[in-house]
Specification:
Number of strands: 4
Strand content: 5-15%
Strand order of the largest sheet: 1-4
Largest sheet: 2 strands, antiparallel
Structural class: mainly alpha
């Protein structure tokens, strides 16, 4: 799998798959850049985000991006499923028809390629080389760990 992370054609196919799989999925407003550098915490411990690049996309793009950026590799391995379960439970508690866990996990896994792409090409005028490298490594490890190797739309997955 790791050889794919250096393959332009794989990246183009992975991004096309994200776009293809997002068709017909419910969209919501997303922040668009929920890495740790955009996080702030109010004096009362209420978190928030700076630098909103608001767009409409399925939830999985934002959740995958945030978890992929925010957790180091071992913490992500330990916490991504419980965090995803919690997210889905909060959707249900808010009256939103949430996807089943297996579908949500597949959407989350697929959308990790977006975060990898962002930090693999990100200019150092936006983030330091150290931040870009750390985040790309986190996303790369997640993609390798989940075995994300190919486009689902093209293969009927």
């Amino acid at each position: 799998m790791s050889r794919y992370l250096h393959d332009r054609d794989w990246m183009v196919a992975a991004l096309a798959d994200i776009a293809c799989q997002h068709k017909g999925k419910p969209a919501c407003l997303i922040h668009g850049d929920t890495h740790l550098g955009n996080l702030f915490v109010e004096p009362d411990d209420t978190p928030g985000f700076f630098d909103a690049q608001v767009s409409r996309a399925p939830w999985s793009l934002e959740v995958g991006y945030h978890i992929g950026c925010s957790l180091d590799i071992e913490d992500r391995r330990r916490w991504e499923r419980p965090l995803l379960e919690h997210y889905l439970s909060r959707l249900k508690a808010g009256g939103v028809e949430a996807p089943a866990f297996d579908e949500a996990l597949e959407d989350y896994r697929r959308d990790l390629a977006y975060g990898y792409f962002i930090f693999a090409i990100n200019e150092t005028s936006f983030q330091t080389e150290a931040v870009n490298t750390a985040y790309a490594a986190r996303f790369g490890a997640a993609l390798v760990g989940h075995g994300r190797v190919g486009p689902g739309c093209a293969t009927g997955r």
